User: Which sequence fits this backbone?
C-alpha cells in the first residue's frame, strides 16, 4: 500500500481517474482485512505464504507449472493482474468453478481464457465453495467508501461438496462456517459467529432464503437499505445480498443455519464469461 520510486508516484499525480481507481482499491484492501487476518493465522501455523504462486497452490496441476503472472491470495482468491500496457491477457483457471468477485459471473476450469480487461480492473475470482470474511459498506459493495459505516459480512460461493472453514469471531474466539450442497441449493451453518448478520452470495441466482427454518422476505433495494432482515438480488450481477435477523438467544457457542434455494442453471442462462470479463 505504498508508492515507491525516485519520481512522484502518488496517485494524485496521474489525474482524477487514477486517483478514483486508487481509492477504490484502497477500500477493497479494507474490505479484505478480516480475510487477510485469518489467512495470516494460517500462514503462521503452516508456513504457506499469503501470496501463493500457482505451482505452490496447485502442485499437481502441471498445466499451471509455468504460470508466473497470476497467483492465489490465500486459498480462496485467484488474482490475475494486467502487468503491461495492453488491455488483454490470458487467465489460467484450475479445476472447479471460479466466480468473479466483482460481478458473480463464473468460469469452469481447468481452462485458459484470453480476453480484454477494462482499464482500472484487476481480475479476481473466488474459488468454488469459497468462504471469505469481509467488512463492506452498508449496501454490501466492494470498493465503496466505508467512512459512513461498515458491516461484517461473509462472501460465499455455491459448493460442490461439503466444506468447513475456521474463522475468528468478533471476540477473537474460534468460529466455524460449514457449507453443505443440497439438491436445490446449499446451506451455510455459522457456529460461534453471532455478529455475522450479512451474506453476499456470488455466482448464484436465488429463489428462496431461510434462516433457522424461517423464510426471509425478498426486499426491494430501498427496503433492504432500511436495515430490514431479508434478501435482494444485486442488479445486473449474479450476486445476492442477505441480511439475517439477530439471534434470539445470542449465547455462545451459537449456531444458525441459512438455507439457500437456487434457480437451476438452465433457468438462469449461460454465464456471460468471455472477452469482456477476463
Assistant:
Amino acid at each position: 500500500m505504498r508508492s515507491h520510486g525516485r519520481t512522484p508516484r502518488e496517485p494524485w499525480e496521474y489525474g482524477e481517474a487514477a486517483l478514483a481507481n486508487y481509492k477504490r482499491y484502497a477500500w477493497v484492501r479494507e474490505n479484505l482485512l478480516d480475510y487477510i487476518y485469518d489467512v495470516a493465522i494460517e500462514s503462521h501455523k503452516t508456513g504457506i505464504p499469503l501470496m501463493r504462486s500457482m505451482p505452490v497452490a496447485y502442485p499437481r496441476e502441471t498445466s499451471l507449472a509455468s504460470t508466473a503472472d497470476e497467483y492465489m491470495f490465500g486459498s480462496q482468491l485467484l488474482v490475475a493482474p494486467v502487468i503491461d500496457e495492453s488491455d488483454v491477457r490470458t487467465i489460467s483457471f484450475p479445476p472447479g468453478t471460479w466466480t468473479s468477485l466483482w460481478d458473480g459471473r463464473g468460469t469452469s476450469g481447468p481452462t485458459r481464457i484470453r480476453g480484454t480487461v477494462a482499464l482500472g480492473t484487476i481480475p479476481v475470482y473466488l474459488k468454488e465453495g469459497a468462504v471469505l470474511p469481509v467488512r463492506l459498506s452498508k449496501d454490501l459493495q466492494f470498493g465503496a467508501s466505508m467512512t459512513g459505516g461498515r458491516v461484517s459480512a461473509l462472501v460465499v460461493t455455491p459448493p460442490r461438496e461439503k466444506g468447513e472453514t475456521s474463522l475468528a469471531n468478533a471476540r477473537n474466539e474460534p468460529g466455524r462456517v460449514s457449507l453443505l450442497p443440497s439438491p436445490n441449493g446449499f446451506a451455510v451453518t455459522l457456529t460461534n459467529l453471532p455478529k455475522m448478520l450479512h451474506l453476499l452470495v456470488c455466482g448464484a441466482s436465488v429463489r428462496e432464503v431461510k434462516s433457522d427454518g424461517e423464510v426471509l422476505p425478498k426486499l426491494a433495494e430501498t427496503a433492504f437499505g432500511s436495515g430490514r432482515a431479508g434478501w435482494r438480488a444485486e442488479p445486473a450481477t449474479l450476486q445476492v445480498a442477505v441480511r439475517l435477523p439477530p439471534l434470539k438467544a445470542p449465547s455462545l457457542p451459537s449456531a444458525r443455519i441459512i438455507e439457500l434455494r437456487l434457480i437451476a442453471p438452465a433457468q438462469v442462462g449461460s454465464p456471460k464469461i468471455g472477452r469482456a470479463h477476463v
Notes: The mean pLDDT is 88. The longest helix spans residues 16-31.
